[in-house]
């Protein structure tokens, strides 16, 4: 963490009145705190979100106050970014997000969101990265570094165990400590220790009975005492529930959703409590100190202001990076008979079916909504790519009921969205709807019959991938399963492209589809990226950062644990999240964690593993192998390293991801890949020792292209016991 001269903080603190200090620790606008003009202390200005800087709101109401100057670049979602498995792209994405936030005059960007994808139903999964903590660690660190390079604070969120939207304001989460430490905290720990995130956001939910945004266990014991964090802790909007608890916790800034700023828990009620002697002023001093320290790190105070970066937004180079990220995020799930890529020179007519071909996604999803400068839909991307040399025929394929006229306010209404009329999402199941659905289906099937080249665009949208609401099931909405099956009956070579923010059930048609292409919400250039992949200008290299289960009841959060409309949720599945569960119990999945095909093929060979235990308190396991592109086109492969611990005093997953490297190869090119693991790749959290322990004994190093495609293995032994925090 960037060092700050504490004497400067002490000097400012000594000059502040109690009233001024209180004013600095709560919102004085929906997205900003109050400054102290007489001491030249500015407000701390924040903005959503993870996919770009959110539109500009009025200070005290949720009305967009700008017309044209708050359009921004729309970035790929964190799910898309994680699917690249590319640390450099994570860093460059952070650079763009930070530059655009600075360009809009922001000090804190409320991102990234890194909650573990425990259940595929979570409405905000599209904002998150992975079911695997190691992949989250490896991607979030460069993302934060890129953001903060622009003198903007990242605000990693939501701390912690915020894994569902149902009852998110009050649900009380319980799990054993080992599960918390191994699965749900590592991403945040890496964000603090390696990414050096200047701020962190407390979550809405409760953990072990305490509200996370003023939890003494999370914020004091773990974050401050164990991790030594000296940055600023910001509450989620409306996540504070008690003045005394908030004041005496290690929360620094209370934010909320209403205009009564002086009545926030940490505003006038706290001021009166301090004056009455109920709460010590030293608690307030500590909060202000953390805020001032953050401001110094951002060059907001003193002489360093003149050196603060200005940032910019909507720069052409930003769009180039967004396109690159979108290209690498697209995942080829299946490609029998090498139907993809299509040959542009031979395609004279292309049938495009399904409304996700023309739907735009920037303007939805809750606080992740973006006022995009533009967004290229898949249909537009295909038209741009083919130009006038081919005719594109389009059929909607399915009926999407119109939304109700009322506009949801995502900071206010999402806090109570569980009570919203389900008509917002399900539409009206009347005779007219059935008639329209049948007409659109018939039109699509006829189009598929008449054309050789057919692409179905299916998936979800932000009526389903959305803040404040979880999905009810894994099924595709709007009758899309039937559409896909009927089209495949008349044209077995039809390409299925799924655009969504979380897995969908494919069992009814996956075996019949020869080609399945997957895209998360890929930003403003998503349609262009898809077109380039479909026609082979780009070789797909994305890999799944989450398992795709065949059915919901296979998912451990639902088969073993609890999820949904409960006051209390217990994570009975423990550490067996995602592939840790599926692979350990040999449960069939539709597509496994780490899976992703290419238009070329790769050969792994010459595995060499060495163990060095000469260090005083660590081990280095060096893994080397050769990867060869055995095909005719350039491509990229992500080599994945899993570790298995066959004999342990605790039950462990059959294997766990511990390292990876993405390598780009020309046709027939060979490169040597080196991945080094250390003690933190072999241990488990020992609840009796209150630390992580790597036991001496035998381990197996597994190298593969996915968690179910292990190409090479080698056993190693550790001679010593390693303990670490």
TrEMBL record:
TM region positions: none
InterPro entries: Cellulose_deg_GH3, Fn3-like, GH, Glyco_hydro_3_C, Glyco_hydro_3_C_sf, Glyco_hydro_3_N, Glyco_hydro_3_N_sf, Ig-like_fold
Keyword Magnesium on entry: no
Keyword Hydrolase set for record: yes
Pfam families in UniProt: Fn3-like (PF14310), Glyco_hydro_3 (PF00933), Glyco_hydro_3_C (PF01915)
GO terms, biological process: carbohydrate metabolic process
Keywords: Hydrolase
Superkingdom of origin: Bacteria
Entry GO MF terms: beta-glucosidase activity
Coiled-coil intervals: none
Fibronectin type III-like domain residues: 637-707
Signal sequence coordinates: none
Family named by the database record: Belongs to the glycosyl hydrolase 3 family.
Protein name as annotated: Fibronectin type III-like domain-containing protein
